[in-house]
Amino acid sequence: MVQLYNLHPFGSQRVVPCGQEPAHFCCGPDVLFVAGAAASCGVEVFAVRHEGRCEPLGSFATLGSVLHMAHSRAGDYLVTIEEKSKATFLRAYMNWRCMSARSSRVCVRMVGHKMEESYSETLKEQMSIVEMPLSDPPLCVSCCPVNGDLLVGCKNKLVMFCLKYLVINQNLTVLDFERTLILHIDNIIPAEVAFCARHIAITTELDVLILKLELIQSADSTEQYTHRVSTLEEPGNGNEDLSTHTLQLELDEFIICQKPVELLGEESKLCEIPITLESTELATEDTKHFQVRYLLFRHFAPDQSPFGFCEEMKLHSVQLLPIYQTGRFICETENKRELLSLFCFFSLPHVGYLYSVGKVVELISTYQYSEKSEQAVLTPQFLHVITSENLQCFTVRCSAAAARDEDPYIDTTAKACPPVALDVCTLRMQLFIGPRAICHFKNHIILLTKANTEDVTERQKPARRMLSRKANSIKSRTNSESEPGWNLYIINTVSTIQLYREMVDYSRTYENAKTESCIHLLSEAHLLVRAAIMDPGFLKSDDKEELLRAFRESCAFLGDCYSRFDTKDYHLALPYYRMAGLSMTEVLERLVSEGDEIQTYERGFIFYLTHSLNEDINEELSKESANKVLQIFSGADPMQLPHILCSPCMRNACPLTAVKYLHKVENRMPSVVLTLTKAFMALKMGDLMMYEHEMGSHKETVLASGFTEQPKLLRQYKDGIVIPTEFAVHLKEMQPGLLVAATVALHENSKIELEEADVFFKINSCNRFGFIFPWVTFIMSMGSPPDKDYPEDISKLQSLLCSQSINITAALPILEPLIEAGNVGLTIHVLCSTHLGKYEDSIDQLLKRCPAAAVLYAQQELKDDSRAVWWNKLLPELCKRTRLTENDYPVLISSLKETLSVVAMELELRDFLSLLPEDGTAAFFLPHLLHCSQRKLLT
């Protein structure tokens, strides 16, 4: 089904100032080639500037009238099929940029002609025409957009020419071709061919055949590869009704299909079209040998049109569209491209087909046209189709398919992308008089119109709606009799960001109705931006950052839809919010109304909150946000409340409010996990009577099994390290047997690893030992202890010094000899100074011997009464040392930045500014300081 929207992908239009009636045209990266009609033997070249302005570059003569033409970005050459005296010729125009109108120097040579030194010196300053003789007349031609190779279609065969770069001398490299391969295809007269990355698409009037040339390891250069597969020889191909795929070979050797046929992948060999490969290049050690793999065969019957029998039912507009690896195409050199996905489009008069032919061959989309089409052109973002009166714009699914080729795990809880099977939509149907041909490059559509006499008269009437027409360099026309019946337009497509904004605004018309149309339009907007990001020129585009912001914004909008709407794909709220980079607090602000106690919440929002709270993420919700989450789950899914409260994110939730909600749940469905959670909340409130009551309501064995249902009651993770909860610390003091039993049960149920349990029991085994501080661990990781034979003893000593039980004054004489012993001595020295309250001395030692640990130490130790040491000692020392030393400059800069963040959040702005040195040391951080100050105001 095709969705219909009235959006505006087309911007302004201009008229190309052609000197003669165009017959054929094609585009280069920044130029337009126009071949004249009838007996005209020439090509006009126009430079395409900003907003589609055309400036004539010049023109050059051709041998005969141009029947077909194509430009190759790789090699920057123009290839033509020309007719003169009823004979056809294949020619390539090299170095055409050197020409100027009717005065350029031109050399003509045969393909493979050896360059002479005297001749080659002038070659770089003149246009070179390469003639490529063929044994049969050329019918159609296609250039590979990846490497510039050339494919020519002739009756019963295809001829491949490889683009060569011949180095004449250090100042001159010349382009040439080598005829390397001929594909003999019996009883085929190609109407159109497309060529890309060794993939070949061929169409006749009613047949489509897609092939791939695959390299083989070794072969005799004269060997020919013929593929003939009969359906009668393949009885086990898995088809239920082989008769529908049977192709009958008549006496005249033409393939006649009884019914419409579609054969995909390996099955396409059943098409009974034999192909013989003939290698024509000179055999060398580097000679490449190919074999043919069939990808797709499709035959259409003349009566297949949904609009009834059509006498002129013929295929047209076959194209191969490549999409490259995201972020891999950094420069403009063509050989740097790495192909990711490949798509093939072809069309009947009333319906078009888009296939993926890369990793998997499958039909992606079918396009139904409102009237008979003349031609179509496919881009990564749109399909543009011309009919007798309209230029139509359809959306495409190439970026959705390519995203899945690039990342097979994209449809998970972390990432998402709109489906390939999403309904296509028409964005615009723009009226034109007599569209005849179309091509596309960058953000321009080139459109040729040819009107009948009555159409020219009709064009003078103001009631006819068309785009604003900005003609540059066109002659004034006073009446319809003097006006020709043709025009060549350059139509600017609007920028991705502009159309994205329009789609988002349009989607809001469906927002209140909470319909799938809102999700559909936002999905279209997302795919539009995703296609722009996958474009090879994205990394060098001026609007790169704006596109990335739009991508994140579109993810957030889709997350909102799947959270607010009752849809079967509600689970997609989670990955879209994650791709948007939103925190839980930010999502709550988007979806939760202030003071709304009766607001209802859909499954998508609950799914997002449940998954986010059950994962170990480093985000603590504020008291207000945490209490709001409790209220949400109490109404939407109260059975989740015990598990939600165990999340580290809910550390600031009001325990009294939590107990109130838990009591309501207990009245409906009591459980041991709920009892343990209530006991946990009682501990937080300091209500020991309630705690003892809850813990006494079950036996210890039942309580131990309850901990296995929710291990977060006992242990949580911070930066990948297991740490005990307040509940576990309390059990260590009051019920150590229960703590041991619960931990053993956790291990037996694979809820905690043995190594984690070992670490867990070391933060809880003895009062005299403490958890080794992170800054101590960091210092020890910077080097080996002096005596490698006693690492366990060193850890025990450090753990003892990290506890509050040691009498440091009495222990100092014993520890004095160890103070200078490398990293171990540094940790002992600083631990002792900290116990004595000598924080400034500790910072001096760390900045002197291990500056990278200074901020870690400050984060751990400089709290409460020692908080002022941040700005009175650490900040001035870092400023001074940053200015004086070069050895640890990156570490000092990083530490200074972190210190400034803390100080800016702690002090008033006036007090903070008075601390900064006046020598400009901190001037570099002023933007960062402004951000910190703004963040402080918000909090």
Automatic annotation (TrEMBL):
Residues in BLOC-2 complex member HPS3 C-terminal domain copies: 498-762, 763-936
Domain BLOC-2 complex member HPS3 N-terminal: 3-478
Skewed-composition ranges (Polar residues): 470-481
Cited InterPro entries: HPS3, HPS3_C, HPS3_N
Pfam family, one: HPS3_N
GO cellular component, one term: BLOC-2 complex
Region ranges (Disordered): 459-481
PANTHER family: BLOC-2 COMPLEX MEMBER HPS3, HERMANSKY-PUDLAK SYNDROME 3 PROTEIN
Protein's name according to its UniProt entry: HPS3 biogenesis of lysosomal organelles complex 2 subunit 1
Protein species of origin: Cairina moschata
